[in-house]
Fold:
Amino acid sequence: MEEFETIKNSIYTKQLISLIKKGLISFCIIVVTMWLISKYIIRHLINYYSINITTINITESLDIQIAFTLMSALILSIPMILNIITYFLEIKANKKIWISFILAISGLIIGLTIMSKNIILGLNQEAIIQGTYSLKNILTFGMSIGFVTALSMQLILLIPLLNQLNLIDIKKYNPLILIVVTYFICAWITPTDLTSTLITMIPMNISMFLGVKLSKTNKCEVEQKC
Structure:
């Protein structure tokens, strides 16, 4: 019996190491890919945001490329991280990995386009022209909103996972408290106007609500009481 457990643990460890290696290789591929297409995407973001500033030095250009590459690579690597965690904890999550990947891409696209543009358009355009906001500041801000949006959408899967591991208790879920908390978080990462804060809050709160709903559904299926 002990020999069987030893063999089982050995196979499990090898599979886990193999999974981590594949994850690291995939992350490197994503980083290289995003770096190669970063110039093209950033150029289109400048046009999409309708930014009047077009001058940027080489150092700022590299900084923006590096920030975009790392942010997008981290977001697109979330499904792999989730896969490794669920395997390590021996939780079946094959479908969740694909859902996480779709949420990562969707969140990044929505954040970089719809949400960022609405918030950037709400900035003081005169201040932008006068140089209060540089092109680097505006693009970094837009990418940050995309990053936050994509992360917040992962809460749909993260909350049920944390609940399954008993790290959080959805019974103590209080919508009002979470709305207040997310409001202050969003107010900190966005400009001072209320519209920007609300635009950022919406996906975060929807994701938490869906995550809690999914947690309750999963619990009902396990307990077979619904």
Observations:
- The chain has a mean pLDDT of 76.
- The helical segments are 2-48, 58-88, 94-121, 125-130, 135-153, 155-164, 175-189, 194-223.
- Residues 2-223 form one domain.
- The first helix runs from residue 2 to 48.
